[in-house]
């Protein structure tokens, strides 16, 4: 009776092929529950293994994992193979492979030749075979899940790769404070000045909820904008910000037009911060601010040797086919945003006239390299200012590949808008950009700002609101 009771709580998850293609480690992600793989899933896995795409690599890795689990186990394969050892204690359930034909009765309107329908038939048959335990289909295919529910079967999405269930709770890098914040945390406050900046050391109940490099702001009679410089136990040290909205502090002729842009420029112009993520809708100034700071730190301050700009080449409409020319020329159609922003940055130099502007433009273009993501593996960037545009279209694995290219003295800036994801199978919760924002928060050499207000034009702002 006890074993039956235990069996009832252990679910049987039937995996669709797209789950294995999405995350080969999914075999070890179901904890104490059992995993069932139909033969048709293995057939489809075999069809996807050729090529150099992410999907093909995942298909091969999934096959290797299955081979490691199954090899050396001849007997009792029908009853399931324990996943405890292969998963290094991450999973305690069993892997069950389909070893015989399973006959199920599906509605006659569903064509039997289609792989999806065969998997649905297997789920229906397993439900009848195991009435005492939940049998659940796991699929990334929405239509497959809808069909399963229409047939009265349990179906779920694969959630294990999601960083956040709800992107509304994604860290935005800023926090508004009020007068009571100082009352609660300012009992033993110390303050001092150094190199034109004011510093405040606080201690209190709110300091535990702060993150290093988080931006705090207060409106009212005594407005304040400060960055959390360090956290040690319950002590927090705040540093007042430089006001980049004032024309005397302009960055390559650009000034901050709102609070968040000022926060972003304070992070971008700080050589101690190696990794920055900027999120925001179209027209919030992500690329312009990043390029302006890059040019100032490369050409004026000479902290970095050159700017490298790359972006994910996912076309929004139909692809335009193969392009002739060098890597730089092939990337040119994707880099319209770069050219548009350089036009703005070049206009700020009115003193030199047309000749001066042309010379400045040539100098700027000589220090900006445009690279394709496809050739990033194995590279190391030294003293470079690396900009990754449209970063929301990267998977967490691709994001790791890119960021680990950074050598000594390199700054990496990721820009994106998680509500504009063009890559199939990526959602706001599983995007590589969401992943790095969540994982890097609180590291002393990284910063994040979510830009709120569009500054493009009154037409663009109104369109963003009403359309």
Describe the structure.
Helix 8 (259-268) runs parallel beside helix 9 (286-300) and helix 9 (286-300) packs across helix 11 (336-347). This protein has helices spanning 2-9, 17-22, 39-47, 54-70, 115-129, 142-150, 179-185, 259-268, 286-300, 327-331, 336-347, 353-367, 396-403, 432-440, 458-466, and strands at 12-15, 34-37, 81-82, 94-97, 135-138, 154-156, 174-176, 190-194, 197-203, 215-218, 224-232, 235-240, 275-280, 306-311, 368-371, 384-389, 411-416, 446-451. It has 15 helices and 18 strands. It has 3 domains: 2-156, Rossmann fold, CATH 3.40.50; 168-240, Elongation Factor Tu (Ef-tu), domain 3; 255-315 and 322-466, 3-Layer(aba) Sandwich (Rossmann fold), CATH 3.40.50.300. With 467 residues, it is of the alpha/beta class. A 6-stranded mixed sheet has the order 3-4-2-1-5-6. Strands 7-10-11-12-9-8 form a 6-stranded mixed sheet, with helices on one face. Keywords: ATP-binding, Nucleotide-binding. In the N-terminal section; belongs to the PINc/VapC protein family. Residues 11-146 form the PIN domain. InterPro entries: P-loop_NTPase, PhoH, PhoH2-like, PIN-like_dom_sf, PIN_dom.
The proportion of residues in beta strands is 15-25%
Number of helices: 15
- What is the makeup of the main sheet? 6 strands, mixed
- The average pLDDT is 84
Strand order of the largest sheet: 3-4-2-1-5-6
Whole-number total of structural domains: 3
Q: Provide the CATH top-level class of the largest domain.
A: Alpha Beta
Principal-axes shape call: globular
CATH-defined fold name of the largest domain: Rossmann fold
Indicate the structural class: alpha/beta
* pLDDT < 50 stretches: 1-7
What is the distance, rounded to the nearest whole angstrom, between the alpha carbons of the first and last residues?
60 Å
CATH superfamily of the largest domain: P-loop containing nucleotide triphosphate hydrolases
Q: State the helicity in percent bands.
A: 25-40%
Name given to the CATH architecture of the largest domain: 3-Layer(aba) Sandwich
Estimated radius of gyration? 27 Å
Q: How many β-strand stretches?
A: 18
